[in-house]
Automatic annotation (TrEMBL):
InterPro entries: CCR4/nocturin_mRNA_transcr, Endo/exonu/phosph_ase_sf, Endo/exonuclease/phosphatase. Transmembrane segments: none annotated. It comes from Cladocopium goreaui. Pfam families: Exo_endo_phos (PF03372). Residues 166-430 form the Endonuclease/exonuclease/phosphatase domain. This is Endonuclease/exonuclease/phosphatase domain-containing protein. GO terms for molecular function: 3'-5'-RNA exonuclease activity; endonuclease activity. The lineage of its organism: Eukaryota, Sar, Alveolata, Dinophyceae, Suessiales. Keywords: Endonuclease, Hydrolase, Nuclease.
Length: 440
């Protein structure tokens, strides 16, 4: 929750015009294809009672062995990104088939599996499914009992039908002016209020998804309150922008072109939109999702991505136009663990520990982007994502200190609940991160 909801009292600009506080939310909503309760990294594990009922004596020890095997096998699946099509005509990455009971039955149910090889009911392109792994340690009956127990949790808290409305509820609670979403693959999924995009429109938001390189469904997204902000140029009718496309500086989607990543879908997008806020002030809003640490052990890729973003803003950041940069950076600042990745990117802390990117605008003038949570995000008590295997602070909002002032009393608490996420209360494995600004 916000530390102290601001009263939305207007700020008077230097020229006498009025701008209401600008509230920004960044939120990794957890890709639908990764939300299954059978995916090890975000799994809500079976209770001791359930394990005892299924496995009998020594259940906990047996489960640890199975859990280790599931995590090891899923490492093969996470990079499986060949696009397949479900019976509803929606494309998804092949890794989303991890939780299927019998792969050989899918084509008969209307799936299109071009480009992947189903070897047997539990093997796809050399990788065993969830059921294929557990059957190596349990009887078929025990395996199905475990599957159904985990599936029950999935249907109650992980399935999109359960998560979608709760994500919308977060927006209702925080009422951000601008919201940046990562792992956004739900544009066309239904919520009971039409598609997710239509549900956002029902809450008063306009926006678009910036598709990742080589992607047809997943990317990052920006949405904004239509009553507060607008674009100079019209948006694509489907509100989808392919990587490499732009509209006369009004908005654009840029491939970060990480060196060594030849397959486009392995690379990351950078999306931006120049919004006229309250008919007063243009604000350049930017969103990204940097490389996962599992594919960038030493941080070199994330460092390069930040250097690329620096170059992008040197051409896109105009004079007298505030910049807001936010997203999931996958750089864990909890206890300062990965702050070294920022070295060489123009990021530094001053004597008060305030953290900023010292970059440049298009005209060569200095662009100072300050971390809106720099006073707390290295604290061991802080976090923005929690699963059964990790507790990290990796989500960021940077703001243009020349033009914007942060209302520190009006920002979200940078602290995950004690339970692993997602769960019945939290629809993602990340919490929303929210900050509020006024014009200087």
């Amino acid at each position: 929750m916000l530390c102290g909801i601001c009263s939305e009292s207007p700020a008077v600009c230097n020229d006498g015009s009025v701008m209401l506080p600008l509230r920004v939310m960044t939120y990794n909503i957890l890709a639908d294809e990764l939300s299954s309760n059978l995916v090890p990294r975000t799994m809500e594990e079976p209770s001791s009672e359930v394990l005892q009922e299924i496995l009998g004596d020594g259940a906990e020890t047996k489960w640890r062995e199975v859990d280790k095997a599931l995590n090891n096998e899923y490492r093969k699946w996470h990079p499986m990104k060949t696009l397949v099509t479900n019976p509803q005509g929606l494309k998804m990455k092949s890794r989303g088939l991890w939780d299927q009971l019998d792969l050989t039955l899918l084509e008969g149910k209307g799936w299109q599996l071009d480009g992947v090889h189903v070897e047997d009911p539990v093997t796809l392109d050399g990788g065993k499914t969830f059921l294929g792994v557990v059957q190596q340690y349990m009887t078929q009956e025990q395996s199905l009992q475990l599957y159904k127990a985990l599936e029950k949790v999935h249907l109650e808290s992980r399935a999109w039908e359960a998560r979608g409305p709760r994500i919308l509820e977060k927006l209702k609670v925080y009422q951000p002016t601008v919201v940046a979403l990562q792992e956004y693959d739900v544009h066309d999924l239904t919520t009971g209020l039409g598609t997710f995009r239509q549900a956002l429109e029902g809450l008063g938001y306009e926006g678009l998804v910036f598709l990742g390189p080589g992607q047809e469904k997943v990317g990052v997204a920006l949405f904004w309150l239509k009553s507060r902000a607008k674009l100079e140029m019209d948006l694509p009718e489907d509100r989808k922008l392919r990587c490499g496309a732009s509209a006369s500086g009004s908005y654009g989607n840029i491939d970060l072109e990480e060196p060594g990543l030849e397959r486009p879908m392995d690379r990351r997008p950078f999306g931006y939109a120049k919004l006229l806020v309250d008919d007063v002030q243009p604000v350049l809003c930017c969103v990204t999702h940097l490389m996962t640490s599992s594919r960038d052990k030493d941080g070199a890729v994330r460092k390069q991505e930040l250097q690329t973003i620096r170059q992008i803003l040197e051409s896109q950041a105009e004079v007298n136009c505030p910049v807001v940069l936010c997203g999931d950076f996958n750089i864990n600042l909890r206890s300062g663990l990965e702050e070294h990745i920022f070295e060489g990117t123009g990021h530094c802390r001053d004597e008060t520990q305030a953290a900023r990117f010292h970059w440049r605008r298009g005209d060569g003038a200095e662009l100072l982007l300050r971390d809106a949570f720099d006073d707390v995000n290295t604290d061991p008590a802080s976090s923005s994502t929690r699963t059964g295997t990790r507790l990290e602070t990796i989500d960021y909002i940077f703001y243009d200190e020349q033009f914007l002032q942060s209302l520190f009393a009006d920002r979200s608490l940078l602290q995950c609940p004690k339970e692993a996420m997602p769960n019945k209360d939290e629809p993602s494995d990340h919490i929303p991160v929210v900050a509020t600004f006024v014009q200087r």
